[in-house]
## 1
Amino acid sequence: MLLTITTTRKPATDLGYLLHKHPDKTQTFDTGAGKAHVFYTEATDERCTAALLLDIDPIELVRGPNPVLHDYVNDRPYVSSSFLSVAMSRTYATALAGRCRDRPELAKTPIPLEARIAAVPCRGQDDLVQRLFTPLGYETEVEDGAGGSGKGRYRNVTLWATKTLADMLAHIYVLLPVADNRKHYYIGDAEVDKLMKRGRGWLDDHPERNLIVRRYLGHRRTLASEAANQLDAEAGRDAEPENAENSAGTRRKEHPTLHDERIDWAVETLARLGPASIVDLGCGEGRLLRRLAERPEFTELAGADASAWSLEMAKHRLRKARKNRAGPDRGVELFQTALTFRDERLEGYEAATLIEVIEHIEPNRLDTLEEVVLGRIRPAILLVTTPNREYNVLYPGLEAGGLRHRDHRFEWTRAEFRRWSERAAERRGYTVTIGGVGEADDTRGQPTQTGVFERCG
Ligand code: SAH
């Protein structure tokens, strides 16, 4: 199988810097299932083409120390499949990561690129390659790869676009196994992580997002559907500050997102009030838990969410954070549960948090949520955050009264949130202090509303 990448941006031989492979050399890498050779078929100022040739050993696939197939007669050695993605990550790791030691600015510059991929197995679904690549801004050409009958399962694909090399490599890396719809390795945690990492910035908005997620995750239905939800949720959460920031012309990294500010607020508030044990209700992907786990004063931490996918992501994130950190290793308990039913595992924590969760609950279930959280869990401290609907008109796209996320069942004005909070506090024997997070508007208040509930006695 063969992948060639060409640029015509002068001096085209800069491709060698971008790929970290010298145009005069042939290099060979071991990929586990065979050898990957990288060499240049042309290298002039005007045009430079690097080829990645993957030479899979069909016997090794079946008989080697790590057999991945059970059948000697298979198409795997010859087609562009997940083996090619693995080979790309072994040979072009630095380029995929968007790094370039000698030409750092070039790695961030969109350049004219052409990629040719031989024998993409797409089972005769001719339009699939277009559906996958066209929305990302590629011009595509799909030719029959098996003698021109038009009925074959394999297609030679050419892609053209002006993009950063890292973006194009990430697209090919994710979408090749999607076109093939078969993966040669076990699909587990690590795959989810790879999809999130390589799909960042483009997968959310892709019209075939669900198909991509489903196929990439090998049809593990629960994972895939939860992945889709998660991407939705991410998009929704990011939509608030991104929209706002884009209009201000600033970028996320330089400017904390509203989501970051909310988490900072929760961490600071908890640090000030000083509980030792905390349960994060509706913990999502565990971003708050990760921050709390960095602080030794919080000795017992737990998260609860209805979404198996989110908990999987949380587990992953917490495990990674633990690996990277010296110091005491503290486990975080994660529970899959619905907050509208009593669950004794959540009881006994001094503090609880509901960060951007209540608006996901049907209004007629809010009394039950209140009973479960303030009646049963009965933490000494409860932090609640929720969007301030009055602020929405300030977000481009929400001027007409839309909500910030399609899973939101409601968004409250400040008066509505205050009314709900004060009534719940009064009924359950708490005091509540209402506040906000985010840049305040004179008339519309802050984008996020907060409530700090403290148990009386
Ligand atoms: N607190 C997290 C996630 C907010 S998104 C953060 O700020 O990043 C809302 C989360 O609430 C989702 O992860 C969703 O799965 C969860 N959720 C919604 N309804 C729920 C319910 N009834 N029971 C448990 N979790 C629920």
## 2
Amino acid sequence: MNYILAIESSCDESAAAVLKDGCHLLSNIISTQIEMHRKYGGVVPEVASRAHLLAMRPVIEEAMAEAKISYTDLSAVAVTYGPGLAGSLLVGVNIAKGIAAASHKPLIGINHLEGHIYANWLLEIQPQFPAVCLVISGGHTDLILIKDHGQYIRLGGTIDDAVGEAFDKAARILGLPYPGGPSIQKAAENGQSYFRLPRAWLKDTYNFSFSGLKSAVSRAVEEKQITNAADGAASFQEAVADVLVKKTLHAAQKYGAKNILLAGGVAANLVIRQEFQKQSSVPIFCPPVKLCTDNAASIATAAYQKFRQGQFTDHSLDVCPSLKLV
Ligand code: KG4
Ligand code: ZN
């Protein structure tokens, strides 16, 4: 029996999960700080790390209790060590090291982005290689070719704002609450995408740019071409989905991908998910909403692959706030 306890604290969610034999999720506990950061309109790093300090231990204890196992049963302790906020990552890494040392278990350091990708291995059917994965989160927008477990080639990514950041900024311009992604999705349900916002195609590359789109929303609001938040949200969401879907489908065709995987917080967006399903002839994998945004279950799934390959991490592990996937 293999049991992995995973810990995630890279941004504003304190999370812990226990995974059995790589696919049975025994617990998946998430304590979010969204309410604490809402009044600031974004995540305040020091507030985040202090909140992790208070939340992390009870979250881990709840995850272990729900899994009905003890620390001695664990096969390994996994933890996100980057990318993310340094002060937040430090809390998770320190507590993971403490548990691993006290229970004489191996430690597995996980790249947060790899965690997002591996949420797709918690689905009933496993993805096939080669796969093209679109990682869209608050801090990242990357198009990745996955040749095999742990073998990544970066095809492209954003040259300015991450797509989640663009959602958050556009929401602020439209007067919608933080976090912007869910607010825009909700507002758009009552809106019409009548206003044609620009798409940055960045021809012949798999790169993305979203800063012009955000400026265009701002201009359209100032010039009263967009007069209500719902229509602005619908127009924005449509423009984002258009670029993400077309570029990803092009890459999937070029590289003969057997599957397209969506990952990261923005992959929770229902319009983006629907457009992929509608337009793709390649099967789309997309984690359930709760496993798109930050969680430790995905970290545990990524760690299981490392465990199988005997890839353990030295207890001198440090955090790496700007860690890259490739
Ligand atoms: O992956 P994640 O939880 O944290 C990071 O690793 O960054 O992603 C957070 C981002 C935020 O920008 C949030 O606005 C966005 O994901 N998001 C969404 C939705 N839910 C969360 N964006 C669009 N539609 C959603 N439903
Ligand atoms: Zn994330």
